[in-house]
Amino acid sequence: MKAVRYIRTGLLVALLLLVGVTTDNRSPISDAQAYNDQTYDQIRLFSEALSIVQKNYVEEPETQELVRGAIRGMLTSLDPHSSFMTPDMYKEMQIDTQGEFQGIGITIGTRDGILTVIAPIDDTPAHRAGILAGDKIVMIEDKPTKDMSLMEAVKLMRGPKGTQVTISILREGEPAPIKHTITRDVIPLTSVKVKDIDRNIGYLRITNFAKKTSTEFGEALEKIRKDKGEDFKGLVLDLRNNPGGLLVSAIEIADHFIESGPIVTTKGRLQNQNFAYNAKTRGTEPQYPMVVLVNGGSASASEIVAGALQDSKKAILIGTTTFGTGSVQTIYRLGDGSGMRVTTARYFTPSGRSIQATGIEPDIIVRNKGGTPRGHLREKDLTGHLENNQVEEDGVDRDEQPEEEGPALDFIPEDPAEDTQLMRAVDLLKGVDLFKELQDTAKVKIEE
Predict the structure, then answer these.
(1) pTM for this prediction
(2) pLDDT band at residue 409, thresholds of 50, 70 and 90?
(3) Fold of 192-328+344-432
(4) How far is residue 363's CA from residue 51's CA, in Å, rounded to a whole number?
């Protein structure tokens, strides 16, 4: 049994990818963890129940499916991010991190037992079909999704390019489910997008953290500096609606701007689950003003980047409170090629903050106007989510935050001029540059 160690610092990304870190070839059983008498009693109880079903069920059951179903139920009972993967699902999980897959292009989570859209991925069939964050998927083809696992939903919605899948959604304000027949396509996970928004201000958007994100990011930064030349006055890093991805990519992005010290740390029940990932001085960007845009769709690895830059005083965060998932998963490969995702630790920002079920609050709260009003899904809304232990430790109830009212919190207008959050970021960076010029002018006059 091979254990592939991953750090899953985000929501259950159903049609995207996982957060991967290292490979651990040790078996969890070989760690010399002693089973106590109570554990053996429960194993005997399971064996007894399995035997009864095998002998007495109305039709002859398939033992493999019985055991897999039991494992699936065991993991589902733990938290929203622990789950079972069939061999096919396990292979797909590995393929996802390579840069593309075939499907409709959405990320989903479970709320009150119902599959709920976290966000559509930009420029995908789901995005073009008008699927919105907060939509509840009640049917996939002719199958109800009540209590359907995320992995089952993934398998149903994925498929070869050119084929179609019909999903029925419930949307706040609509009296009946809406059917969407969507043609599947190749979903390229091009991570970094550059847009010209201002003569002096650079703009980079990271839509997810994949294997090539750091390389794409470095190339995009170089292009911005070359194009802007001496006019380059600051950078907007847009992490809105970024559901996460590979942790190593998030660390590499943060490492562009942080000279030294921790970027993220993880703490678990066992000593070998505790890690600290520190910044390297080499390759650090020159100091220039930066704003990071976040919202309720910013989760997982994007929260790691935002939290690291905020704690390190390298950027000002603008937008709305992030999704709030700060848990760590390890992926174990089982003997038959199937896999288990098991929550093993929590992660913390450089200052020691846990954002589990609370999210990261921006330095400046700004909401975009427009969009369809609807309830926004966050980590704290997921059934069985882990609580934030820091609430008990320091006596501050971070979960009791005022609800954000108004339009859809993840709405991003196509026209930059209508994007209030983006325009606020640009104005702030211009103000910083203007203030610096005034200071330099005043200094020259004093020296004269």
Answers:
(1) 0.75
(2) low
(3) 2-enoyl-CoA Hydratase; Chain A, domain 1 (3.90.226)
(4) 58
